Amino acid sequence: MPDMSSSAALAMTHLVPLAEVDENKVTPGVLGFIVFAVMALAVWGLMKSMSKQMNKVDFKEAPDPQAESEAAPAAPKAKQG
User: Fold this and answer.
1) What CA–CA distance (Å, rounded) separates 59 from 1?
2) Alpha-carbon distance 56 to 15, whole Å?
3) Distance (Å, whole) CA 13 – CA 20
4) Is 71 helix (H, G, I), strand (E, B) or coil?
5) What does the pLDDT look like over 46-67, one tens digit per residue?
C-alpha cells in the first residue's frame, strides 16, 4: 500500500506550482496573521476605551468638612507657661 502523505504532498505541489512547499518549515500563514491582527485591534480598542474611562475619574479628593470639625476639638492643646 502506498504512503498517502507523500502522494498528498505530491498532489499539492502539482496543484500549486507557484508556491514552494517545504515540509520542514512551519509558518502560521494567512489565518495566523488574520487572528493576530484581530487580537491587536481588540487590544487597541480596549486600551482606547480604558483611557477614555480613566480620564473621567477625578483623583483629587475633596476634604470632608464634617471630619475636620470633629478632629479639631480632639487635638491636644499645648500649655503655655
Assistant:
1) 75
2) 58
3) 8
4) helix
5) 999 999 999 998 878 778 878 7
